[in-house]
């Protein structure tokens, strides 16, 4: 996972990008902590948050500790929402398991790349569980857009302009209040709200 701070066409952002090449982009303790820290920086610096997901889900090698990151990151995003700051979730191929069941679906705006595989369980597991055939294109970005589960499909070559435009739009329309009117959680309260064992 790569985390950083920068500008997207002049719009200041905090960026989190999963690396599918490392253990299938799985979510574990370190990844969860890095996401929470990026959220904390976004709140402190009044910046938008962008998370680009590419993951097979929670890392099974860390067992319960990896599953804890689902609630930990979701709780942190609640604080970002309370601070009236935008969060854009970008779903790439694949975005599955615990990632799709937590922060990936919590964006103010959820976009996907064309043809991306997005879902919780795999198609074979679902088919065996329900005992029926699945619709054509099931769990692909186009299917999800058609059924209202994502907001848009954007090719990667268009991400920079699209995301910068949406950050500007969401910042102006979601915040609608000055910095002085926003109460930024103190470090102590932030840490208390997100405190977990391990």
How would you summarize what this structure contains?
The chain has helices spanning 29-45, 64-82, 97-100, 123-130, 141-146, 159-175, 187-193, and strands at residues 2-8, 11-17, 48-55, 87-95, 109-112, 152-153. It has 198 residues and is of the alpha/beta class.
How would you describe what is shown here?
The structure is a single chain. The protein has 198 residues and is α/β, with parallel strands linked by helices. The protein has one domain (2-177): 2-enoyl-CoA Hydratase, Chain A, domain 1, CATH 3.90.226.10. The protein has helices at 29-45, 64-82, 97-100, 123-130, 141-146, 159-175, 187-193, and strands spanning 2-8, 11-17, 48-55, 87-95, 109-112, 152-153. A six-stranded mixed β-sheet has the order 1-2-3-4-5-6. Strand 1 and strand 2 (11-17) form a beta hairpin.
CATH homology-level superfamily: 2-enoyl-CoA Hydratase, Chain A, domain 1
Shape descriptor reads globular
What is the number of strand segments? Answer: 6
CATH class: Alpha Beta
Strand order of the largest sheet: 1-2-3-4-5-6
What do we call the CATH topology?
2-enoyl-CoA Hydratase, Chain A, domain 1
Provide the number of structural domains: 1
Written as H for each helix and E for each strand, in order along the chain, the element string is EEHEHEHEHHEHH
Supply the CATH architecture.
Answer: Alpha-Beta Complex
Structural class by secondary-structure content: alpha/beta
| Total helical elements | 7
Q: What number is the mean pLDDT?
A: 90
Sheet-strand content, in percent, reads 15-25%
Low-pLDDT regions? none
Distance between the termini: 20 Å
């Amino acid at each position: 996972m790569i985390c950083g701070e920068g500008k997207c066409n002049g719009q200041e952002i905090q960026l989190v990008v999963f690396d599918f090449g490392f253990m299938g982009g799985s979510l574990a303790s370190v990844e969860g902590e890095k996401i929470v820290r990026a959220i904390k920086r976004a709140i402190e610096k009044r910046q938008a948050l962008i998370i680009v997901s590419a993951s097979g889900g929670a890392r099974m090698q860390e067992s319960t500790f990896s599953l804890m990151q689902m609630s930990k990151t979701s709780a942190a995003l609640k604080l970002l929402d309370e601070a009236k700051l935008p969060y854009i979730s970008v779903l790439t191929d694949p975005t599955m398991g615990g990632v799709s069941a937590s922060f990936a679906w919590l964006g103010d705006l959820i976009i996907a790349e064309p043809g991306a595989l997005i879902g919780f369980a795999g198609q074979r597991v679902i088919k065996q569980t329900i005992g029926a055939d699945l619709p054509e294109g099931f769990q692909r970005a186009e299917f999800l857009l058609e059924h209202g589960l994502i907001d848009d499909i954007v090719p990667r070559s268009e991400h920079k302009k699209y995301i910068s435009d949406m950050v500007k739009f969401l910042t102006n329309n979601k915040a609608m209040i000055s910095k002085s009117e926003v109460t930024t959680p103190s470090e102590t309260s932030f840490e208390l709200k997100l405190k977990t064992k391990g």
